[in-house]
Structures are given as structure tokens and as C-alpha cells.
Model the fold of this input.
Amino acid sequence: MLTQETLKTFKKHSDLISYLNNHKAEHPLFQSALDKYKYEQELLPLQAELVDFQRWVQKENKKIAIIFEGRDASGKGGTIKRFKEHLNPRAMRIVALNKPTEVEKSQWYFNRYIKELPNAGEIVFFDRSWYNRAVVEPVMGFCNKAQYNRFMIQVPEFEHMLYESGTHIIKFWFSVSKEEQQRRFESRLNNPLKKWKFSPVDEKGQELWDDFTMYKNQMFSRTHNAFSPWVIINSNDKKRARLESIKYVLSLFDYDNKGNNYKGILPDPNIVQRYFRNTIQLDQ
Done:
């Protein structure tokens, strides 16, 4: 048992870590604390790399759009939070649009997203994106079949134009199992600080699981390409998903001082995979 007297004997934080390692079988909280410590020790140098990456983006006038898609409670928001935590807010934005207004409904579907695209020297994180129309909207009945079909035809052309204009698009799909999603829903409902995250769409997420799967697979097969590929993140372990998705982004660019804070920036292929037809996904 970790007592007040034992704590007083520790001279440095490594003494506490050593104690937890030696006594982790005594209490599950000891292992939990060790796991969190290890995660933080890996996260902080990766976030320092992101700061160097952002400086390079500003200096070279790069335009970076990072799209976070996935089922509800798949870990998108938590990952975005870790990406942006130490970045300069003047050179980055988070885009999480509400449902379209009546005016926006009468416009070309991509209009409201075009306004949010990165300017030169800027990183934009899309917490859901135009791909709402590929999965969520048809499943929930928020668009009709003609609107869906039009979107699926236009989106590769739209992204190719962005690519030709110098915008780097990174498309993440956070893949979570049905059982883990349910566990996270229950956790939200039992946490007074997170109840706001649970919506009517979330409530139907489990009920309409197979419909989501069908539309998700259609989206991958029709919108995955060489200039704008889909990257699947195994997100049942939220902490590993955060770390590995940061590594993936950093691995794509040769920015100044790369590797000064974190050596060997290569994502774990067990967590991060480019989409192909036989890619193992948790949310099938």
C-alpha cells in the first residue's frame, strides 16, 4: 500500500516509478499510472516535433488539411486535442461545423467547406468534414439518393483540384469495435462532464451499425486514391491511436529539425494502415 510515509522517502520521480513497477500487482491503479506516465513520456516529444513541423509549414507557406472521420466515440476529438495542444493558435484552426443553414442547403455542397480550407502557412483540423455526406447523412436520412450520388462522383475531382493547388489532404478513419463504442457511450452517459457528447445520432450508432459499415466501405472504395488516400487508425486503444496518428503526419514531411525531439518517427503498422480492400478494420 502506498502510504504518506512511503511517499516521503522518495527523493525524485524515478523513485516513485520504480516503486510502482515493483508493486504493480498490488493495485490496478499502479499499472494505470505507469501506462499514463509512459504515454505522456512519448506524447510530449512528439508534440515538440509538431511545433517544429508547424514552424516549417509557416515558413514554407504549406497548406495542410487533416480530416478526422470515424464512427461516434472513435477518438477523433481526443486526438485533435493532442495534435493542437502546443501549436501556435494563429497558424492552425479546428473546424467542426454545425448542421447547414437553409442558405447553405441551397448552395453547392462543398461551399461551406471551401471557406474553411487552409491558407498558406496554416494547418486545419477537420473534426468531421465533407465526408458527412458519404456516411452519416445517407444512414441518418439527412440527404437523398441523388445528393449522395452527386457527392460521390464529385468528391474525387474536388480533392484532385485541391491537390493540384498545393493543399495537402490527410484523411484519417478512426476504426473502433462495436463493443468498445458501446463501452465509451456508457462512460459518457455516466460522466456529468461528458454527457454533452452523447447525441441522438450516437444513440442510433449501434442500432444502425451495419448501415454505417456498408456506406463506409463504399466511401473507401470510391474515394481512396494515390493523391488522397484513406488511412485507417485502429483506435480501440485511444492513447496509441493518438501517438501513432501524430507519427504518421510527421512521417510524411521533411520539415526542419525533424527528429530532434523524437527519433525514428515511423508509425506502428499494427495501428496505422493505408486502406486497401483486405485491410483489417475493427468496425466491420
Remarks:
- The first helix runs from residue 4 to 8.
- The radius of gyration is 21 Å.
- The chain has a mean pLDDT of 91.
- The CA atoms of residues 134 and 144 lie 11 Å apart.
